[in-house]
Amino acid sequence: MKKNIQYLLSVLLFLVSGFTTSFAQYPNVLIGEQFTPEEPAIAIDPANTKRIVAGANISSFYYSNDGGVTWGDGQLTSEAHGVWGDPCLVVDTMGYYYFFHLANPPLGSWIDRIVCQRSTDGGLTWNDGTAFGKDNNKAQDKEWAVIDRATNTIYVTWTQFDEYGSTNPLDSTNILFVRSTDQGLSWSTPVRINKQAGDCLDSDNTVEGAVPAVGPEGQIYVAWAGPLGIMFDRSADGGSTWLANDIFVSDIPGGWDFGIPGISRCNGLPVTCCDISNGPDRGTIYVNWSDQRNGETDTDVWLCRSNDGGNTWSSPIRVNNDLPGKQQFFTWMAVDQATGYLWFVFYDRRSYTDMKTDVFLALSKDGGNTFTNFKVSETPFIPTSNVFFGDYTNISAHNNIIRPIWARLHNSQLSVWTAILDSTMVGIPDVLPQAENDEESYPNPFSDEAYFAFKIHKRSLVNLEVMDLYGQSVATIYANQWLDPGKYIERFDSSGIDLPSGVYYFRLNTGEAEKRRKIIYLR
User: Fold this and answer.
1) CA 261 from chain center: how many Å?
2) From CA 203, how far away is CA 438, in angstroms rounded?
3) Is the pLDDT score of 58 beyond 80?
4) Which residues contact 465 (CB under 8 A, 6 or more apart)?
């Protein structure tokens, strides 16, 4: 595995700056920059959140066994089917990863099937793959998959073009569906699920963006965009039957295919998710997309939700919380099925008047009623429209561990990145408190010993721990200990702990409040 040193370099840059610039709240990690990567996908293994696999166009795969701090990589090949982008990654309860993509077969036509390649070793190696959807020379495009973790059944939906790019009104696009019950070794016969077909121009009137989701009782939900806006369908029997009529979710003023300065092409295709956690919003279905209903200079990120299985839908809810007039685009969402929290990633230009572009995340802990927006990229980039940028970002979340993935296009160079964060760090200030505050961490950075000063104002039951960025305890200083009022200075000695360099934090809980203070460790 190659060592990714971006994380440590950011720490060193912090030191060189003389502490005049605050350390990035969410350290950015370079995943890969070879082979002009874009259109990335990522999947955390819920059974082991330190194991993550990612992919990017056209054929790059990446794997990490330390939560995304370091990455190995390779190039996916398939002798039987070829590889041609649109990566999608899912993982089952056995830890098997599935990499779905388009085809470029040695015998056959370009993108004439959808391919699934499987890895049983955490993304290090992949089988040659199986394929489905071949229908003479029709084009099979923009696939996405989901796994029902109760049964490990794999569901896939995608767009079939009678002839890609055709202007013939007799040619059309449709949304197809298959399933596999044997870990991707074989596939059911594809079935069409949409009622209204689209054209073949790969634009607003083409039906695309079919992302399946699984409900609490094994239901299959999927929405897509097309000439009627965003439409929805569902199956209660594993995909054998579907609704007699598709259900309208929302219009998309301006269409799903729109222009963003500096981006070669941009779309706002929908993403469908369902909350199957044990939280208060269990069973709620969400559809997330972006559009230009507020004008070509004001692209926004939207969310609709349904609490009745998709029969009725809310009005569109704006996810980005900036003032009107800026661009937010290429959104993706995930539901943390351990907490029910909603996570969104998108590109954002709220801070600029030119094409400088940040990456933002949004978090909703209340089923889409309110949103916290925060910047996750360390520096902006300036894209150029003569380099293809891909069609989507992606994000994976489980049990408060969140890994977005995005392409960065700067100085005409492409690279793929993630950020190290968990939900407990959202809202913690970047800048450390000043000495006059009750809580203070010092020295910062530290290499051997760190001290945490705090004050309590009445007798309290205190817990004080040192945590890593995954929310895991590194050391316990106080565990349910009663302390009298006063100021305390506690010492943390790292000499007996094999810690990697990075960002940690003291977490203080006094029963009435919880506070955190970041600190940087350098070996």
Assistant:
1) 24
2) 57
3) yes
4) 473, 474, 475, 476, 477, 506, 507
Average of per-residue pLDDT values in the chain: 91
With 70 as the cut, is the pLDDT of residue 424 above it? no
CB 516 within 8 A of CB 506: yes
Q: What phi and psi values does residue 263 have, to the nearest 5 degrees?
A: -110, 130
Number of domains the chain contains = 1
Q: In terms of C-beta density within 10 A (0-12 exposed, 13-18 middle, 19 or more buried), how is residue 421 classed?
A: buried
Q: Which residue has the tokens 């079919």?
A: 210
Closest CA to 180 of 153, 157, 220: 153
> The whole model's pTM is what?
0.82
As a whole number of angstroms, the longest Cα–Cα distance in the chain is 81
Per-residue CA distances from 521 to 222, 445, 516 (Å) = 45, 6, 16
Say if 333 falls within a structural domain.
no
Helix, strand, coil percentages in the chain from 3-state DSSP, rounded to 5: 5, 45, 50
By residue range, what is the domain housing residue 480? Answer: 440-521
Q: Which two tokens stand for residue 389?
A: 């940028």
CATH of the domain at 486: 2.60.40.10
* Count of other CB atoms within 10 angstroms of residue 394: 26
Q: Please provide the distance, in angstroms rounded to a whole number, between the alpha carbons at the two ends of the chain.
A: 21
Q: Residue 19's pLDDT is what? A: 28
